[in-house]
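FW: tagging you since you asked about this chain on Friday. Here's the raw sequence from the shared folder, copied in full. Didn't touch anything.
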Amino acid sequence: MADQAAFAGTHAPAVQFAVDGKVPDARYEAVSLGARWNGWETPVVTRTTFETLLRTEDPDGEWYRLAFDEKGVASMQYPQDPDCEDLAVAPTPDGYYDLGELGWLFYRPESEVIPT
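HL: got it, structure written out here
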């Protein structure tokens, strides 16, 4: 993966995370973890990981649609909920995405206790 190679050697090793979602055994790699939100992790990820996460959690694109503009800003759409506004997630200067903006329940899989 080109974007994973870009941070190899310049950043700390990737950190695994999981989401309390449809595929409980799925694991993803974060470049780093941001400040915790309500006890949950806030992974910072590559574009590839962001796309993989949504394809894994919603393989048919029924609940989420993800698109990127020419500047790399991610736009998440919610086709099942017309009252829900699209969510824009701008990349960091390094080109990563802070998934804490999604408000999802992320955790480190090696943790014995999942926050409640």
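FW: Helices lie at 2-7, 47-57.
HL: agreed, and Residues 47-57 form the longest helix (11 residues).
FW: great, closing this out.
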